[in-house]
Amino acid sequence: MAKNSISHYNHLFNTLRTKGPSTPFLLFWGDEDYLKRVAIQRIDKFLDAKRISFFGNDTTIEEIAEVASNQGLFSPKRVIVIYEFEKLKQKDEIFKMRPSPGTYIILIISSSYDKKKTKDLLKKYKNLKHLTVYEFSTLDFNGFKVWVKSRLKKNNKEADDKTFNALIKRLPQNLTLADIELRKLFLYMGEDHFLDMHHLEVLSYESWSSLQGILLDIMGYEKFNLSKIAKSMSDKRSNQLIYEIEAHFARIIDANLNTFFSDRYRSSWRISPYKRHKMLHTTKDAAKVLSRLLKIEYATKTSLRNEQIIKNYILLSLLP
Fold first, then answer.
1. Distance in angstroms (rounded) separating the CA atoms of residues 122 and 115
2. Which end of the chain is more exposed for a tag (fewer CB within 10 A), N or C?
3. Given a cut of 60, is residue 221 above it in pLDDT?
4. Lowest-confidence range among 81-95, 103-117, 212-226?
5. Alpha helices in 1-114 (DSSP H)
6. Is 175 helix (H, G, I), strand (E, B) or coil?
7. What are the residues whose beta carbons fall under 8 Å from the beta carbon of 75, sequence distance 6 or more?
């Protein structure tokens, strides 16, 4: 997949924010989930609309059609987002719908979906007149650096050229993963304004593994499933464990902030707001656990070397 410049995305997002979608159906695909999220937010701003989310694996055409065609007396503008479109049964039927005026349907193909099957879907639907297809490929390297600089500025942080270049080398060039790493960094920096080399010690990007699946499956009920987590930790190194669990709690925080992950998690948990007596980690709890994990991670890079002790600390950090 060819990489795109930041000017390409700036133009796209500005068009969506000022002019809105040109067709009632939009299909988003590509590796960059972060950029898909930004595009949805720009459409939200243009329409000042209510967003309704579905997931292909656990919804039906009938449920979507009921929302899309609702023309009540005071029918509001709506943005209907269907995540994991590739899992939706009767995909062809969705394009036969006639959404009410002011309703737009955004279909999201998962970035993890098989590339060949993705191309087959695109080939099948891309020529529909009432559908616009948007590809969200990875930013080119210069664009990625500009994006990182913008994140530093937004969080009131500065870095000299040497430290900035070191930061760039430590970040995964995927905006979703890099965003998690940067939020870790800003949390670790606290009130420090100038980024220093020692701050970078908190960064620890690793590839995701099966632990992510376990954490998602038991989402919000960790205190009843610590044995499952402990078992999944046994064959993994501590630096990978820390990263994956930090990413997990970052998503819990995201869920409360109405960012990209929130719709998926609220759908899976079936909670809005949190069920205080059943869910262990509220947003406040998640921030505390994330802070604990950052301290453990820093210790592993300065004084703590025993893998079993580190894993025990990780488990303890999950408790209230």
1. 11
2. C
3. no
4. 212-226
5. 6-18, 33-47, 61-68, 91-94
6. helix
7. 100, 102
